[in-house]
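retry 2 of 3: previous attempt timed out while embedding benzoic acid. Reduced batch size to 1 and resubmitted. Inputs unchanged:
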Amino acid sequence: MNILSAKWVITCDENNSIIENGAIVFSHKIIDIDTIENIQKKYPNEKIEEAEENSVLMPGLINSHVHLEFSANTTTLKYGNFLAWLNSVIKNRDTLIEKATQKLISTKLDRMKKTGTTTIGAISSYSFDLEPCVKSPINTVFFCEVIGSKADMADTLFADFKSRLEGAKQSTSKNFIPAVAIHSPYSVHPFLVRESLALAKEEELAVSTHFLESPEEFEWLHKDEGLFVDFFKNFLNQSKAVTKPIEFLTHFSNVKKLSFTHCVEASTDDFRKIKSLGAIINHCPTSNRVLNNSKLDLSKLEGIDFSIGTDGLSSNNSLSMFDELRTALMVHSNENIIELSQKLLKAATVNGSRALGLNKGVLEVQKDADIISFNLPDEIEDKEDLAMQIILHTKFVNKTIIGGVVA
Ligand code: BEZ
Ligand code: FE2
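retry 2 succeeded.
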């Protein structure tokens, strides 16, 4: 049994409880959480170190959407327009993938840990990131991705997807959980969507998919028009989208652990459907900014919870969740900064846990003991500013605890 204490303990629970001078008792799960005074009374024989000045304890951050296989990109890819980016990914994919060695990916994971991330939703196209994820103390929900819009390729691609998923299952552990990613409505044939979802439902695997990431995707899916026309004609000899957005969403009924990434161009009907599916939206504000100059309209979510993802270094300059939270704070300039900050800390913890189907993200009895500790540079005058000051000032953490162990 371990006990940690801090000036501020942010629980991220339903009531947004913040305990001033709080302590957490934990082994691999959280055993108790209360004020230091009460914990001292309840555990008189346990030593509790005095809380450091301006210290904070909170749930470890959950990056619900990242592509580690693109970790080698810095300045190569084209930004500013989704199609220009997609073409540059296709052109440079082989070189970038080759440069993203297991050593490089492990270095990135280590830096993520130092910046407070305890869990990731890793979207894996080729399983080249499997070993670094298995070796890392960070919890990984490993989404084996299925892609391919051409009917005549569907069987081959499904076989390849199943073999990667089987490979991932061999490494299943408490902190490595295989899952299913469907690339997007424009790039996956309905046959592949149906078959991979049947598999996910049968085994209760988490599922995630990119959805309506750009205006070009909207035009293509709804009207078979726009910049995707040339792309599909040249690249795949196709003139029509394989599905409509609502039709696509309908496939996901009865998936219990479900998330949709981006949704910046989703319609009111799409949001209604996403809500009825009980899904979470993975919000990746930097990626949306650099690829499309767009952002998720938080006012349209109406009861849908969102989590935070960095996306890959293919569309970001950092995999730090604190960097991503600062971007979110700046991008949503129409929102009140204090309220948005509180919402964002929950997005980066408890909502991420829901997106990935885990028992984490809240400092509450019986939840997994994934905890980060760090210090603010100075005192907080007003408790309601805490979330905002944390997002503005935190770059690295002092301690990352995963499953009750210092990682
Ligand atoms: C495909 O494999 O069909 C595909 C891949 C990327 C973008 C669009 C389509
Ligand atoms: Fe992505």
